[in-house]
UniProtKB/TrEMBL annotation:
<feature type="transmembrane region" description="Helical">
    <location>
        <begin position="388"/>
        <end position="416"/>
    </location>
</feature>
<feature type="transmembrane region" description="Helical">
    <location>
        <begin position="150"/>
        <end position="173"/>
    </location>
</feature>
<feature type="transmembrane region" description="Helical">
    <location>
        <begin position="261"/>
        <end position="279"/>
    </location>
</feature>
<feature type="transmembrane region" description="Helical">
    <location>
        <begin position="108"/>
        <end position="138"/>
    </location>
</feature>
<feature type="transmembrane region" description="Helical">
    <location>
        <begin position="237"/>
        <end position="255"/>
    </location>
</feature>
<dbReference type="GO" id="GO:0005886">
    <property type="term" value="C:plasma membrane"/>
</dbReference>
<keyword id="KW-0812">Transmembrane</keyword>
<feature type="transmembrane region" description="Helical">
    <location>
        <begin position="185"/>
        <end position="206"/>
    </location>
</feature>
<dbReference type="InterPro" id="IPR010656">
    <property type="entry name" value="DctM"/>
</dbReference>
<keyword id="KW-1133">Transmembrane helix</keyword>
<keyword id="KW-1003">Cell membrane</keyword>
<dbReference type="Pfam" id="PF06808">
    <property type="entry name" value="DctM"/>
</dbReference>
<dbReference type="GO" id="GO:0022857">
    <property type="term" value="F:transmembrane transporter activity"/>
</dbReference>
<keyword id="KW-0472">Membrane</keyword>
<comment type="function">
    <text>Part of the tripartite ATP-independent periplasmic (TRAP) transport system.</text>
</comment>
<protein>
    <recommendedName>
        <fullName>TRAP transporter large permease protein</fullName>
    </recommendedName>
</protein>
<feature type="transmembrane region" description="Helical">
    <location>
        <begin position="12"/>
        <end position="45"/>
    </location>
</feature>
């Protein structure tokens, strides 16, 4: 009975242990790997796990994560985004966008959304994006008597776009976990990412059109006109946009791998800082330190997740998940909706890294085998397993973006509150993000109902 119990239910106990220990405040990488090692030894006591299998974990870490050339792109993308932030490129970009949209209802809020979209295409570091935009935009919005909830909601939602819009670190990680081309994932996420940004833009414009007092316009005396505006665009708008086109365009055109393009981005961001005269030693030192620490944290998490997932599978976790799904009696759509609901609920309590590293390896094999009929047939061609996984990955990515905005552990809310003026209350922040979370759910449903939004670009590119 003992062996039967462990073989069938040990994986569930692992999940429960993970859920409890994450709340202790211990580093997540230690928690994930520690649980894996501990349950490996417990499995040995019940003869369902052998000591020699620990050596397989080592080979998976060194032969998988450490030798994966795509993963080299992660620290370079982090460097690129951090350099653009620290060198003042982002600050100049926001000022330029504000001048261009000064006569549009909610112009400054729309500028923040556009800057979030552009900066999302430089880095997937949500904390850096939210903190940077809070420091740059929130004081200005408050001085212009913007509604605090609208201001904070716009900043928090726009700052999280980097998790979805390429080159996203999360998509690089997903491509490795699902064995899907990172280039295809990047292509698949572009339209859904722009769709979310468009939903934000329409919402802000319509709401400010109905109630202009929420977002008073820029005083005409502060506006820039004529050649000064043209110079501002040439100086502040075109360089970061050109860098993004260079990086993403080289990937999509097939001229460079994501790793090579990340190197181009890192060099390009450094060059922009040099041209602006802001490439000082303290800036360079700070950027390198932050990039190294963030990269080390992520790779430690990758290694810990490898330990957890290997032990989980060795103890029969895959079979347990499949049995539970089969016993539920749900069809393909029921299973997909259930998984999306699980990811959404987990987003209230866990970071995207933990959810991605734990959920994807377990549920992806289940999704890959599901038959969605002709729903995924783009252009009359039956969807391949890789296309199903690509669509699923984009759905999870859109879903996980909400994890940054949903209390009690919405990290974007913590970042924002940490650097916002003391006059901004957490209640105002919570009130502000509700419409944007609903817009993200709408975006998720649209991508689910219209898979072409995710699959059209990869299919067109492959042709």
């Amino acid at each position: 009975m003992g062996n039967f119990y462990i073989e069938d239910w040990f994986p569930l106990i692992m999940f429960a242990s993970l859920g409890i220990l994450v709340f202790t405040g211990l580093p997540v990488a230690f928690v994930i790997s520690g649980i894996g090692i501990a349950f490996g030894f417990l499995g040995m006591a019940y003869d369902v796990f052998s000591f020699i299998e620990f050596f397989n974990i080592v080979s998976r870490i060194w032969g998988g994560i450490s030798e994966n050339m795509v993963m080299v792109a992660v620290p370079m993308f982090i460097y690129m985004g951090t350099m653009l932030e620290k060198s003042g490129v982002a600050e100049d970009l926001l000022e330029c966008l504000n001048m261009l949209l000064r006569k549009v209802p909610g112009g400054l809020a729309l500028s923040v959304t556009l800057m979030g979209t552009i900066m999302a295409a430089t880095t997937g570091i949500i904390g850096a994006s939210v903190v940077m935009m809070t420091l740059l935009a929130l004081p200005v919005m408050m001085r212009r008597n913007y509604d605090p909830s609208l201001a904070t909601g716009t900043i928090a939602a726009s700052g999280t776009l980097g998790i979805l819009i390429p080159p996203s670190i999360m998509l690089v990680l997903m491509s490795d976990l699902l064995s899907v081309s990172v280039g295809n994932l990047f292509l698949a996420a572009i339209i859904p990412g722009l769709l979310l940004a468009s939903l934000y833009t329409v919402y802000i414009f319509v709401r400010c059109q109905i109630n202009p007092s929420l977002a008073p316009p820029l005083p005409e005396g502060e506006a820039v006109h004529g050649m000064e505006l043209v110079k501002m665009m040439l100086r502040s708008f075109l360089p970061p946009v050109f860098l993004i086109v260079l990086v993403l365009g080289s990937i999509f055109a097939g001229f460079a791998t994501p790793t090579e393009a990340a190197g181009v981005g890192a060099v390009g961001s450094t060059f922009l800082a040099l041209v602006k005269g802001r490439l000082k030693w303290p800036v360079l030192k700070d950027v390198c330190e932050r990039s190294a620490l963030t990269g080390a944290m992520l790779f430690f998490l990758f290694a810990g997740a490898t330990v957890f997932s290997y032990v989980f599978r060795s103890l029969g976790g895959d079979d347990l998940v499949i049995d539970l799904v089969d016993s539920a009696g749900l069809g393909p759509w029921g299973i997909l909706l259930l998984l999306m609901l699980i990811v959404f609920i987990l987003g209230f309590f866990f970071d995207w890294v933990e959810i991605t590293l734990i959920v994807l390896p377990i549920f992806a094999p289940v999704i890959a085998q599901l038959d969605f009929g002709h729903h995924l047939d783009i252009g009359g061609i039956d969807a391949t397993e890789a296309q199903v996984l690509t669509w699923f990955a984009v759905l999870v990515a859109v879903n996980l973006q909400t994890s940054f905005l949903t209390p009690p552990f919405g990290f974007a809310l913590f970042y924002l509150k940490g650097v916002a003026p003391k006059s901004i209350t957490i209640q105002q922040i919570y009130k502000g993000i509700i419409p944007f979370v609903l817009l993200q759910v709408l975006g998720l449903l649209l991508v689910m109902y219209f898979p072409e939004l995710a699959l059209w670009m990869p299919n067109t590119f492959l042709e």
